[in-house]
Amino acid sequence: MGVDIRHNKDRKVRRKEPKSQDIYLRLLVKLYRFLARRTNSTFNQVVLKRLFMSRTNRPPLSLSRMIRKMKLPGRENKTAVVVGTITDDVRVQEVPKLKVCALRITSRARSRILRAGGKILTFDQLALDSPKGCGTVLLSGPRKGREVYRHFGKAPGTPHSHTK
User: Fold this and answer.
1) Predicted local confidence at residue 10, as pLDDT
2) What CATH number should be reported for the domain holding residue 89?
3) Domain span holding position 60
4) Would you give the DSSP letter of residue 96?
5) Is 153 left (phi over 0), alpha (psi -120 to 50) or beta?
6) According to the model, what pLDDT value does residue 1 have?
7) Of 70, 90, 125, 152, which sits 20 to 30 A from 31 (CA to CA)?
8) Which of 140, 94, 98, 138 is nearest to 118 (CA)?
């Protein structure tokens, strides 16, 4: 008779809290945990899940990509929400008026958004502004944009391989 002792695959592997000990991030998690529980909006659940993510899974979003995504039809007068960093892009000459919420914004990107007459929110301000995520667009940077992904894939030298 066999004994049921193979419990190595029982555990659901997902983050229930951020690995970081940053107290400000922890406060945001507390706030969005409350909002995710008390509001029936998936926006808050997605933001909470993204707050738990590692830095490699929260890639930076460039100003040019954000402008391109916010120019799409039906996205005017909406708030761009990025659970991550917004970085400046020197290739963009003129920045339109944007309303942005992000964990971090580089100093040059911040100055360019504000100079264009835009508005920058923090996540606690966003929670007061739109607790259910109404009038927002969730954006994220390219996850496969990191240098390491150039080393993955078909072996270098084989046909149709772009691997380093």
Assistant:
1) 87
2) 3.100.10.10
3) 56-151
4) P
5) left
6) 65
7) 70
8) 98
3-state secondary structure of 83: strand
Which tens digits make up the pLDDT trace of 49-58? 999 999 999 9
Give the model confidence (pLDDT) of 2-61 as tens digits: 677 888 888 899 999 999 999 999 999 999 999 999 999 999 999 999 999 999 999 999
Q: By CB neighbour count within 10 A (0-12 exposed, 13-18 middle, 19+ buried), where does 33 fall?
A: middle
Take residue 149 and report the two structure tokens written for it.
Answer: 């992904």
Q: Quote the number of domains for the chain.
A: 1
pLDDT digits (tens, 9 = 90+) for 59-75: 999 999 999 999 999 99
Kindly list the distances between the CA atom of residue 136 and the CA atoms of 18, 25, 53, 100, 101, in Å, as whole numbers in the listed order. Answer: 24, 21, 20, 9, 9
Q: Give the single-character DSSP code of 97.
A: P
Contact in structure between 105 and 125 (CB atoms under 8 Å): no
Contact 132, 39 (CB under 8 A): yes
